[in-house]
Automatic annotation (TrEMBL):
Parts of the chain that traverse the membrane: 53-73, 79-95
GO biological process, one term: positive regulation of plasminogen activation
GO CC term (a single one): plasma membrane
Alphabetical keyword list: Membrane, Receptor, Transmembrane, Transmembrane helix
Keyword DNA damage: no
Provenance organism: Charadrius vociferus (Killdeer)
Protein name per UniProt: Plasminogen receptor (KT)
Length: 147
């Protein structure tokens, strides 16, 4: 009788362990999907913000270019056109970010860093662990009671 009960308990325990493993795996997959969705949405918001900014900055740049050109012609001083140079770099960067290939180039460079220069990504004093965090918490805590 004890053997049958023990075997039944063992089978039940195995089934429960398999269920817990499957459940934790499913939870991890959902968490990874959620994090990826959040990253994609943040990137989409960044691109949309850049495109919106480009509309306003493009208008400003166009008006400034026309105004500075007219001022340079009227005063016969080509130095008046100098502010167009840095403004054109800003405009080109924003255009490349919103409609060009800047994000693909950044992604490629990030992949290169991950593949070939991973030592640049190491944290000072190594990765965080529970013991180090607990030590810091204990040193900063006013309510810690030693057991």
């Amino acid at each position: 009788m004890g053997f049958i009960f023990s075997k039944s308990m063992n089978d039940s325990l195995k089934a429960q362990q398999e269920f817990m493993l499957m459940n934790s795996r499913l939870q991890l997959e959902r968490q990874l999907l959620m994090q990826n969705q959040m990253r994609e949405r943040q990137t989409a918001m960044q691109i949309a913000w850049t495109r919106e900014f480009l509309k306003y900055f493009g208008t400003f740049f166009g008006l400034a270019a026309v105004g500075l050109t007219a001022g340079a012609i009227k005063k016969k001083k080509p130095g008046v056109l100098l502010p167009i140079v840095p403004l054109s770099f800003i405009f080109a960067y924003q255009y490349d970010m919103g409609y060009g290939t800047l994000l693909q180039r950044i992604k490629g460079e990030a992949e290169n860093i991950l593949d070939t220069q991973s030592t640049l990504l190491e944290l000072p004093k190594g990765p965080l662990n529970y013991e180090a965090l607990e030590k810091i918490r204990r040193s900063q805590s006013k309510f810690f009671i030693e057991k």
